[in-house]
Amino acid sequence: MSAFDVDLFVIGGGSGGVRAARIAAGYGAKVMLAEEYRVGGTCVIRGCVPKKLMVYAGRFADEFEDAAGFGWTVEKPRFDWAKLKQRRDAEVTRLESIYDANLIRAGVEIVPERAVIEDPHTVRLLKSGRVIRAERILVAVGAHPVKEPAVPGIELAITSNEVFELESLPGRILVIGGGYIAVEFAGVFAALGSATTLLHRGERLLRGFDDEVRDALAEAYGHRMDLRLGRTLTGIERRDGALCARLDDGAEIAVDQVLIATGRRPNVEGLGLDRVGIDLDGAGAIPVDAYSQTKVPSIYAVGDVTNRANLTPVAIREGHAFADTVYGGKPSCVDHRLIPTAVFSTPEIGVVGHSEAAAREIYSKIDIYKARFRPMKATLSGREERILMKVIVDCASDRVVGVHIFGHDAGEVIQAVGIAVTMGATKADFDRTIAVHPTAAEELVTMRVPEVTKHPVGVG
Fold first, then answer.
1. At 101, phi and psi to the nearest 5?
2. Fewest C-beta atoms under 10 Å: which of 108, 141, 305, 352?
3. How far apart are the first and last CA of the chain?
4. What is the CA radius of gyration of the chain?
5. For 108-150, how does the pLDDT look when each residue is reduced to its tens digit (9 = 90+)?
6. Cα(273)–Cα(256) distance, integer angstroms
7. 234-270 confidence digits (pLDDT tens)
């Protein structure tokens, strides 16, 4: 008789935990999964999926406007926030039920409670008091948004969690932050008709992205909203039925909502990690090795709680790799160096590989290929819109080491490009690929002459 109740106990029902549980169960493991909120995690319940649906909703405003240039007469459209919320929430509920069904079909037992770690092989369910012995424990609890900076009145603001609970569209909204979440929500509210201000302490949005892409986004957003860079929030107070946000330059902005999107922290509080001797890193995350194993051999962690690459597809891949390694007999670790990603701003951003600045630090000599053009659709719609495409090549190997796209459907395009770059495609491979015409993406295979060829002083 086994000394354990289950082979694997998964704490957290988000993307990484669900994938790990399903794959492990598929290999024959007895798996129990505890989720205290809703199965699906941040991405499905209050993140990527509902946010992308809101992005789609906002983009119809541009479509209605563009239609006139193509001969359509469209009456002034009206937007119904309540209807969008109802439809969006129903879709989230549908997806949650699919996650539940897939786990049950795989043989995973779902426990709707908070679980904490008691020792290297024991978890305790707080609501029922049950104690479960597990051969292995996987922590996949994700992260939560934080309200920073901690200025006076910050409690009056909302985060990316509460934004989905708004019962009406704010007439005026201030979004604080410069990362994915801030940029995407600012774009959504501006498109849906809110008077939107995006405030960021840095001089550029989207730290870590290629500077030209960042500049292109700032230019586009400067036309769509009140963009304030290099400024910080110093306080919020209620005044005359509104929220008054004070900035470090003395300016005041009257709005109906303040959305803080300045960062997220791993959900480790009260988890019991201290009981088993697992110390957190400087970011408050769980340190793990390449196979997602902590310093305690029976305890593993995947996803945002490890702060490696905080993206849903990465968490899914980490969860799958964990199950393959431990239960499938196929040792597998995730390469975090090359991750295609998209920012669902409007216009959209798609990236795989290095930025120009990073590539210059790594390679002795690089070539930069660029294309800037007006999309074909804009020639009749009259919209002042530009697309930027940038391909970065390591001259020594001719390998494409970075692709950056700013423009419509960049996320869709970069997924396909990511396959080629991951496989080690060269510029010659791009060049011999026949273009699909007329498309915007064909520019990626028709750029022949590098715009800039630079290398560090004394090299080459």
1. -65, -40
2. 352
3. 68
4. 24
5. 999 999 999 999 999 999 999 999 999 999 999 999 999 998 9
6. 40
7. 999 999 999 999 999 999 999 999 999 999 999 999 9
